Automatic annotation (TrEMBL):
Pfam families: ABC_tran. GO terms for molecular function: ATP binding. Keywords: ATP-binding, Nucleotide-binding, Transport. Residues 14-245 form the ABC transporter domain. SMART domains: AAA. This is ABC transporter ATP-binding protein.
Length: 316
């Protein structure tokens, strides 16, 4: 179900201006952060541990008091209209924080009750969200019996019970295996596709690259880069590949201008080349040297490379 239209339909889903937070111990967690998230976007907030991600999310979700700055959610100021603003937000924290001795159906209905949703409507929503999370068959079992991936999907379903226009997920796939993670990606794409704006923090950078259209990178309390995923990734002028070779890799590899070609082991070659370069030129040179490529794969995640470059640059 798409979020209901409001008078603030043209406002950013999230607008943050010069946001600052200094804790009582003197630590400056945020040093003037500003960013906008468009309605309907799937937005990644990335940064190393201690960068300020959790503080930013805490302020936006009204769990942490800001020291200075302005935050609006779909045009609603979180200070002047806190209640209205919080009704627009759903938060999925990293920690499992529901009663493990309650049933999923009851967890969702009780959560809806906290927001004044009538029981009959809450029950209908609970079924809808549990089905979307592929948990309907588990609706009446004790939640402690659910797998780790099911528990995280249940937390997403719970957050969606209030029909939030902005869904914030803090490391939603932490600690789950890749198969479960990809199943959760499908659920999140469906939620976003139905119109809900999503902000995601994650340490799995391939997750951000796969899901998100825009991102901001925060480091030491400051936004060091933000924009479209495609535009930021275009800044990378080097691509890396690993070639699996038929037979043994010779110790003397061909010299291909503009590339870096290295032997990894008896059957693998490491290649770095400019993104604009034609890969066929590399294959032609390898073939001329009698080296036959059996298969190839990308060497590293492009977003991870960009992230490392930017945070390293800021530390210099």
């Amino acid at each position: 179900m798409s979020p209901d239209a409001t008078p603030h339909a043209l406002a950013p889903a999230l607008s943050v201006r010069d946001l600052r937070k200094t804790y009582d111990n003197g630590v400056q967690a945020l040093k003037g952060v500003s960013l906008d998230v468009r309605p309907g976007d799937f937005f990644a907030l990335l940064g190393p541990n201690g960068a300020g991600k959790s503080t930013l999310i805490g302020i936006v979700s009204s769990l942490v008091n800001k020291s200075a700055g302005d935050v609006e959610i779909f045009g609603v100021d979180i200070n002047r209209q806190r209640g209205e603003a919080m009704r627009l937000v759903g938060l999925v924290p990293q920690e499992i924080n529901f009663n493990l001795f309650e049933k999923p159906f009851d967890i969702l209905c009780n959560y809806a009750g906290f927001y004044g949703i009538p029981r009959e409507e809450a029950a209908a929503r609970a079924e809808e969200e549990l089905r979307r999370a592929h948990l309907w068959e588990k609706a009446q079992v004790m939640s402690r019996t659910l797998s780790g991936g099911m528990k995280r999907r249940l937390m997403i379903a719970r957050a969606m019970m209030t029909r939030p226009r902005l869904l914030i997920l803090d490391e939603p796939t932490a600690g789950v295996d890749i198969e479960i993670r990809r199943g959760m990606w499908k659920t999140l794409r469906e939620i976003n596709g139905a119109g809900t704006t999503i902000i995601l923090t994650t340490h799995y950078l391939e997750e951000a690259e796969s899901l998100c259209r825009h991102l901001a990178i925060i480091d030491k309390g400051t936004i060091i880069q933000q924009g479209s995923m495609k535009k930021l990734l275009s800044q990378l002028d080097v691509e890396g590949f690993l070639f699996d070779i038929d037979g043994d890799v010779p110790h003397a590899l061909p010299d291909i201008t503009g590339t870096k070609l290295e032997r990894v082991d008896d059957h693998t070659i490491d290649l770095e080349m400019p993104r604009a370069m034609d890969l066929n030129r590399v294959f032609d040179a390898l073939n001329a040297a009698g080296i036959r490529v059996r298969s190839m794969r990308t060497k590293s995640n492009r977003l991870e490379e960009l992230f490392v470059r930017m945070t390293s640059r800021e530390g210099q």
